[in-house]
Amino acid sequence: xxxxxxxxxxxLTDALSARRVLHLKxxxxxxxxxxxxxxxxxxxxxxxxxxxxxxxxxxxxxxxDVPYELARAADSHAxxxxxxxxxxxxxxxxxxxxxxxCGTTLEYLVDLxxxxxxxxxxxxxxxxxxxxxxxxxxRIVMLGGVYHPSxxxxxxxxxxxxxxxxxxxxxxxxxxxxxxxxxxTCVHFHEVPIKQRVIxxxxxNYLVVDRSKIGKLKPAFFAPTSAFxxxxxxxxxxxxx
Length: 241
Hints:
Blueprint: H1 2-19, E1 22-23, H2 24-31, H3 35-44, E2 49-52, E3 55-58, H4 59-63, H5 70-73, H6 78-88, E4 97-100, H7 107-111, E5 119-123, H8 126-132, E6 138-142, E7 146-148, E8 153-155, H9 157-164, E9 170-173, E10 177-179, E11 183-186, H10 192-201, E12 204-208, E13 220-223, E14 230-233, E15 236-238
Parallel strand pairs: 4-5, 4-9, 5-6, 9-12, 12-14
Antiparallel strand pairs: 1-3, 2-3, 7-8, 10-11, 11-13, 14-15
Helix pairs in contact: 2-3, 9-10
């Protein structure tokens, strides 16, 4: 048993060295075991592996991109995030194109897309893309570029060029901080060009956050609050105090 586990760990380490990121399902197929077994192997080896949005990455990739880590944020204010997304979901309409920002809030919005809605969803994070693949009537446009493990997202000119070729009806944006004077901010500077390009292109923009983000100021500014048709929290549409 121990030898088989050691072999799995070595195989998984080698695969990540070559690919940098591996979906849980692909890892299970590669190792010839269940997804639960792979999860246990990951949990037993935190120094080797990280798990983000259904994907396995080298632990060093996460540790090298602190202070914000997607995996640690996932359970923070989860109920409030779900409730905020429930309010935002009324802006999802059939036969339209929507943009879903990165982070741990808007993944709950994906779950609220009605199964019978035929829509195009644009995203640039693995956790959003992973959930979108479970929606049979959703066409996914994944923006590419350089991968950032801390937010499980991509950035770069390739993604911006793709955005310029799209018609986006509704954009759902996330933020790590909303300040009355300074506006919407995030932790990672690599997210800013994508957020700003989307805001300039989309017909409607909505900022979806839980109220714990209001009053906070993070290092990377991306838009004044006036750029959004509404700021949506667990309490519904709200003004910034």
